[in-house]
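B., you asked whether I could sanity-check this one before it goes into the benchmark set. Here's the sequence:
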Amino acid sequence: MRGARIAGIVLVAAIVGFVAAQWLWPRSQPAPVSPPVAQPAATQPSGPPAPLVSPDDVRIEPGNEVAIDSKTLEAGKPVVLHLVLAEASRTEEPRPVRVLSPEGQAVEGKGTLDDGRLEVRFEFDSAFLRPGRYIVEVKTTEMSHLPLRRYAINVR
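And here's what the prediction gave me:
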C-alpha cells in the first residue's frame, strides 16, 4: 500500500513539473513558411546547357555534363568516352565503367587508361542511347571511402 502511494505522488509530481516547465519555458514556434510557388518547368533555371559534342569522341571532365544530339548517333558505330580522372590511377589495370540509362538499364565493361593514367577510354554501342540523362560511373583507385567518379551525358 505504501509503494502505491509513493508511485502516485511521484506521478503527480512529474505531471506538475512537466506542466510548469511548459508554462515557464514555452518552445519558440518557427515563423510560418509560405509554400513555394511552383514555376512552369520551362522557366525554372537549370544552369547553362551542356555543350553538344560528337558521339565519336566524348571527353568529360569530373563534375561536368555533356550533351549528344541523338540525330548524330549511327547504328553500329560505337560511342567513345574519354573520362578524365581527378587524380592519376595508382595502377595500370583497366578501370570498371558502368553507363546507367534513365530506365535503369546498364552497360558495363572495362575502360583503358591513357599513358598518364589520368583518362579512361570506354567504348559502347550507340544503340544503347536514347534521349534522356545517363550517368557514367568509373571505379577509381583513389584513397577514398567511395572510390567512384560520376559523369553525366544528356542525349537530346
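One thing to flag: Residues 26-45 have pLDDT under 50 and may be disordered. Otherwise nothing jumped out at me.
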